[in-house]
Amino acid sequence: MRKKTCCVTGHRNLPQREINYVKAALRREIERAVMDGYTCFMSGFGEGVDQYFAEIVLEKQKDNPALELIAVIPYRKRLERLKEKGRTYKMLETCLEVIVIEEKYHPSVYSKQSRYMTERSGRVIAVYDGRKRGGTVRIIRFAHMLKRELREIPTGEINLPSKSWKYLYGHGPGFKAQHHKLKKKSKGICQQVPFFMLKYGQGCI
After folding, report:
1. Which of 43-47, 70-74, 172-176 is the least confident region?
2. Which end of the chain is more exposed for a tag (fewer CB within 10 A), N or C?
3. How far apart, in whole angstroms, are the C-alpha atoms of residue 135 and residue 140?
């Protein structure tokens, strides 16, 4: 019987203030995947989200030995650099398998890595801030093209007109205090909204 596989994608350079939120959301998604029968997890071991994901899977593996982590590394030199760092060396040593897509770097190697993971996964967990380019949006596009289940964790900031706040916060508890606090930060043109607030914030749509 083929194992149910789940892979991750996400940005390397998350704002510091969002890292704990992203780690907690990844933990919830991994726990949900395990409940849904997923036992094999793939990570490209990029900085940021990929490595947070790998750490959580390995932590869960201590209580559930059936869980497996597979590293999918784009090219050989990247693997060598990861092994030079104690933290990632230990994680790689614990992986069931370390797959290297290409021996040498070339411009399409990350696209091949993205497609490899997406093709072999039934579910993709994506930490995404809406940017139009990069490895994260590439995997999201592959997931749509291949009709894979996509679990998105929104992050980053978007700009909204000031009047839009009443639509976002007008129905939640503590609306007046929250709206007043946010309004004070505005310069009257637009306001930056942490993107995750649109889904997880108090009183949000």
Report:
1. 172-176
2. N
3. 9
- d(CA 7, CA 99) in angstroms, rounded, equals 14
Residue by residue, DSSP assigns the chain as -PPEEEEEEE-S---GGGHHHHHHHHHHHHHHHHHTTEEEEEE---TTHHHHHHHHHHHHHTT-TT-EEEEEEEEHHHHHHHHTSHHHHHHHHHSSEEEEEESS--TTHHHHHHHHHHHT-SEEEEEE---SSSHHHHHHHHHHHTT-EEEEEE-SEEEEEGGGHHHHHTTSTTHHHHHHHHHHH--SSEEEEETTHHHHSTT--
78-137: pLDDT as tens digits: 999 999 999 999 999 999 999 999 999 999 999 999 999 999 999 999 999 888 888 888
Is residue 7 within 8 Å of residue 149, measured between CB atoms? no
Phi and psi dihedrals of 128, rounded to 5?
Answer: -140, 135
Q: Is the pLDDT of residue 140 over 70?
A: yes
What is the share, in percent, of the chain residues with pLDDT greater than 70? 76
pTM: 0.76
pLDDT for the residue numbered 27? 97
Q: Which value, to the nearest 10 degrees, does the dihedral of the CA atoms of residues 163, 167, 170, 173 take?
A: -120
CA 35, 36, 42, 44 dihedral sign is: negative
Sequence-distant (≥ 6) Cβ neighbours of residue 24 within 8 angstroms: none
